[in-house]
Amino acid sequence: MTWLITGGAGYIGAHVVRAMTEAGERTVVYDDLSTGIAGRVPEGVPLVVGSVLDGDTLRRALADHAVTGVVHLAGKKRVAESVERPLHYYHENVEGLRALLDAACASRPARSSTPSSGVRNFVFSSSASVYGMPDVDLVTEETPCLPMSPYGETKLAGEWLVRAAGRAHGLTTASLRYFNVAGAASPELADTGVFNLVPMVFERLTAGEAPRIFGADYATPDGTCVRDYIHVADVAEAHVATARALTSAAPGTDLTLNIGRGEGVSVREMTDLINEVTGYDTPATITPRRPGDPARVVASAERIAVELGWTAKRDVREMVTSAWEGWVKPT
After folding, report:
1. Taking a C-beta distance cutoff of 8 angstroms, is the pair 250, 172 a contact?
2. Residue 214 three-state SS
3. Topology of domain 2-181+230-259, per CATH?
4. Global pTM?
5. Predicted confidence (pLDDT) per residue in 240-267, tens digit
6. CATH: 3.30.1160.10, 3.90.25.10, 3.30.930.10, 3.40.50.2300. Which one for 187-228+262-299+311-327?
7. Per-domain residue ranges for the chain?
8. Distance between the two ends of the chain, CA-based, in angstroms?
9. Which of 11, 131, 151, 178 is the catalytic position?
10. Would 67 disulfide with which of 9, 62, 124, 243, CB 3.0-4.6 Å?
11. How confident is the model over 198-215, as pLDDT tens digits?
C-alpha cells in the first residue's frame, strides 16, 4: 500500500503522516502549503506541492507514486469564516473533494472484483460539526446531522460524496468525524495556526492579554460551550487503525466513525487549565457568541472501539502540556 495524504504538511496531517510511516505504511504528502509547513514532512517521504482543485497534478501524483489509498485532510476549517465566505468553503471543500475523488477513481483499471492497481481505499477527514447542536448527552454516529455552519455542511456533503463514489467505483471508504483536536506528539509538530481554542489562549496569554470566551450564556453548567477534546496523536493512531481496516475490507465497505474521548470539558474549564499548565493567572473575558457554535457536542466513541479496537489514550492535561511545549519551543 502507498497512501497519498492530502494536507499532510498541516497540523493534523503531519501527525497522520508520522503515525502511518512509523506503522510501516508508505506515504506521499500532497499539500499546497497555504497553511502547511514543508519542514513537517519526514525525511524520505515525498512531498508533492499542489491544490486538490488541480486534477492534472493529482492524477500525476497518484500515477507517479503508484498510490493505492488516499487520506484526505486538506480543506478549510474555520467555522466563523465559513459563515462569512460560504461560496469559498463549498468550492475548496466540496469541489476540491470531487476533483480528488475523480482523480482517484480514474486511477483504477476497468472495474473488476480484484483490481490490481489504482486507489482502492479512501479515508475522509470529516468533523463533529456535521451534528450541529444535538440535544443528547453523547453523540453517536446515528445522531441526526443538522450542521449549523457552511463548514459543517461541506463536511456532511463530503461524506455523501465519498460514500456515493465508493459504492459506484468499488472503493472502501471511511469518514472520520473529529471532535476538538489539541496537543502535539512532539514540539515541532505543534499547531502553529491560531484557529483552535488552545493556541488562541496561548496567543493571548503570551501577548499579555486576557483569553476570550465567546459567549457565557449557553445552556451548560457554567454557561460556556462544552466540547470533547482529543489529543492529535490519538487522532493519528485512529487513522492507522482505519487504514488497516479498509485495506482488508471488501470493496464498497463504508465506515462512519466518531473520533473523540466521550468526555465533555467546558471552554471555561479548558481556559483555567491552560492558565494552570502555563503558569499564568489571567482570567478570561467574555465576548459575544460566534455564529455557528453549538452549546454542547461530546462524542460517543463506542463504535470505533468495537469495530477497530481503537480508544483514546491521552487526557486533557497531556494535550495542553504538549501543545505548550510546542508553542514555547526554541526557534
Report:
1. yes
2. strand
3. Rossmann fold (3.40.50)
4. 0.94
5. 999 999 999 999 999 999 999 999 999 9
6. 3.90.25.10
7. 2-181+230-259, 187-228+262-299+311-327
8. 36
9. 151
10. 62
11. 999 999 999 999 999 999
Please report how the helices 197-206 and 316-327 are oriented relative to each other, as an axis angle in degrees rounded to 10: 50
Confidence band, pLDDT 50/70/90 cuts, at residue 23: very high
Position 292 pLDDT exceeds 60:
yes
**Surface-to-core class of residue 210, CB atoms within 10 Å of its CB (0-12 exposed, 13-18 middle, 19+ buried):** middle
Q: What is the pLDDT of residue 110?
A: 60
Question: Residue 316 belongs to what H/E stretch?
Answer: helix 316-327
Instruction: Give the gyration radius of the chain's Cα atoms.
Output: 19
The reported pLDDT for the residue numbered 2 is 97
**The dihedral sign for the CA sequence 300, 267, 157, 161:** negative
C-alpha pair distances (Å), 13 with each of 31, 56, 68 = 10, 22, 18
Residue 325, H or E segment: helix 316-327
- Give the C-alpha separation, 289 to 312, whole Å: 30
Helices 11-22, 232-247: crossing angle, 10 deg rounding: 50
Amino acid code (one letter) for 73:
L
The answer to whether 90 is a known catalytic residue is: no
Is the separation of the CB atoms in 318 and 247 below 8 Å? Answer: no
Alpha carbon 321 to its chain centroid, in Å, reads 20
- What's the angle, vertex CA 296, arms to CA 127 and CA 317, rounded to 5? 80
**DSSP H helices in 90-229:** 96-106, 150-169, 197-206
C-alpha cell at 186: 512532539
Per the structure block, which three cell numbers stand in for 202? 496561548
Cell of 285: 473575558
